[in-house]
């Protein structure tokens, strides 16, 4: 007679159907625990082993609810149903056909129970997962999959919640409704599932290599902090889009900021988890260091007039690119203004479009530094990242422009320059610089081609900040990264007017120190 019911799943939401099904299954398999004995009570009978998968994930579309809240709901569920339960976290793994073995090993490590086909029935409604346990000899109870008509599955109920359908409360078990209400998880689920930017796994794009980004943030941290240090106002200091927290590590070392709160906000799960790990490992000496996982496009993060200094590095072009361009950027700037104390400051460092970005220029590109296929590929999204990097990296600069035009999500036009070789094209200056400043990011090509660097020029920035209410400090201004010009642009490209007069390379970056007036 089975002693255990193994119930693997993400278990973000529990349903009334599951309660009746598990209670009936436990009764059919043997005497269940005494009603009211609940979550871990003693006595004989069947124990439900909840293997909570993706236990290390939260705040993503696929896994919106953190493990400890899922565990709380399961324990509450067990009390209300009279089921004896043990709850085991199973961390996310790469896709594998040995998932069943991995789960069983997690159960053994966490509880000391070696579940076998002789003493365990597996409750699972996902055919692909159930098949893995069947291959090991386990009997399968199909849960929703064995009932006609098929009851609402937990994920379907969760999506009803996200869509604003109040009927989810009638389908969800009271334990879930109670825990969701007490911890406001319904609001969290709606925000995460309906997020217009963040993907299923908690990043901006599925193709981004966050290890590369974290290393780049760390390498540039000292330069960034040196640029902003003198403009930082002590108090509540927030780094929005903080990456792996490298700049806040430097702020933490400043004696003048030892009484300040240092707060990092990051949307990408991989980077946020690194911030939390650093704090746990003692990277920060200031006890008032906090990290939040938020998408700033989702609305206000901080209360009005509560932040003294806001830092943003290489962020605003992402808001422009992944949101609704100027409309999204303006909402973000307004949110920064609203949460800034009178006299407080927002310091923004990012890429920038050239002055006169809409004027037509001639762009000469090398055809000698790589291959020149007859036509660009249209299937890069189907290839592994390393193959994408190898292919794009092998193209000449001129051929890379053709590939960029295919993959770039902001359409632009260009044409061969009259009376010139195919290596010379005519296009707007802004589009030319968007390509030239992106052409060498082959390791993250499909991610970089989703972003626009040159959407705003410096005059646009000044107008936007003034319109919202900020005063632009004289320390602000555009600049040109001469290392990029010397090492990336000049060796393989040249700019001229349509009539052939050479043009100097334009600005590439902007540094903004925006203050909220004291009397506002």
Automatic annotation (TrEMBL):
What CDD domains does the entry give? AdoMet_MTases
Kindly provide the name given to this protein in its UniProt entry.
Methyltransferase
Cross-referenced InterPro entries:
SAM-dependent_MTases_sf (IPR029063)
Biological classification of the source: Bacteria, Bacillati, Actinomycetota, Actinomycetes, Micromonosporales
Q: Which domain of life is it from?
A: Bacteria
């Amino acid at each position: 007679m089975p002693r255990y019911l193994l119930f693997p799943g993400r278990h973000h939401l529990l349903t009334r159907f599951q309660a009746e099904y598990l209670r009936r299954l436990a009764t059919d398999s043997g005497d269940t625990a005494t009603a009211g004995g609940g979550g871990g009570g003693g006595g004989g009978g069947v124990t439900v082993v909840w293997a909570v998968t993706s236990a290390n994930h939260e705040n993503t579309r696929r896994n919106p609810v953190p493990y400890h809240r899922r565990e709380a709901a399961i324990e509450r569920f067990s009390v209300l149903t009279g089921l004896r339960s043990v709850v085991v976290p199973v961390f996310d793994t790469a896709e594998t056909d040995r998932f069943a073995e991995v789960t069983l090993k997690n159960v053994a490590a966490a509880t000391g129970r070696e579940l076998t086909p002789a003493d365990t029935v597996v409750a699972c409604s996902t055919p692909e997962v159930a098949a893995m346990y069947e291959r090991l000899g386990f009997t399968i109870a199909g849960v929703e999959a064995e009932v006609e008509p098929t009851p609402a599955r937990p994920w379907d109920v969760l999506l009803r919640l996200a869509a604003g359908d109040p009927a989810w409360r009638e389908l969800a078990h009271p334990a879930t409704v109670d825990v969701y209400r007490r911890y406001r998880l319904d609001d969290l689920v709606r925000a995460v599932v309906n997020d217009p930017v963040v993907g299923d796994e908690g990043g901006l794009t599925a193709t981004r290599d966050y290890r590369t980004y974290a290393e780049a943030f760390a390498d540039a941290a000292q330069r960034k902090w040196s640029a902003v240090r003198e403009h930082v106002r002590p108090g509540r200091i927030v780094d929005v889009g903080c990456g792996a927290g490298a700049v806040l590590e430097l702020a933490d070392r400043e004696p003048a900021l030892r009484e300040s709160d240092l707060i990092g906000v990051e949307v990408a799960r991989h980077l946020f988890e690194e911030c939390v790990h650093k704090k746990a490992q003692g990277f920060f000496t200031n006890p008032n260091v906090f990290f939040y996982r938020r998408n700033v496009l989702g609305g206000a993060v901080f209360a009005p007039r509560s932040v003294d200094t806001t830092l943003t590095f290489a962020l605003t072009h992402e808001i422009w690119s992944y949101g609704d361009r100027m409309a999204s950027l303006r909402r973000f700037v307004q949110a920064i203004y609203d949460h800034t104390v009178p006299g407080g400051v927002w310091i923004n460092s990012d890429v920038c479009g050239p002055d006169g970005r809409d004027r037509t220029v001639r762009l000469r590109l090398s055809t000698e530094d790589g291959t020149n296929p007859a036509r660009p590929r249209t299937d890069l999204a189907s290839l592994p990242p390393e193959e994408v990097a190898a292919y794009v990296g092998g193209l000449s600069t001129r051929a890379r422009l053709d590939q960029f035009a295919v993959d770039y999500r902001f359409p632009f036009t260009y044409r061969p320059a009259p009376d010139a070789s195919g290596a010379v094209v005519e296009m707007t200056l802004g589009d030319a610089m968007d390509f030239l400043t992106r052409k060498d990011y082959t390791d993250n090509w499909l991610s970089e081609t989703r972003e626009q660097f040159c959407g705003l020029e410096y005059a646009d920035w000044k107008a936007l900040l003034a319109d919202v209410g900020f005063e632009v400090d004289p320390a602000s201004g555009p600049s040109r990264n001469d290392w990029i010009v010397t090492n990336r642009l000049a060796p393989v490209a040249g700019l001229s007017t349509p009539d052939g007069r050479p043009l100097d390379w334009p600005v590439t970056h902007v540094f903004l120190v925006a203050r909220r007036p004291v009397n506002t």
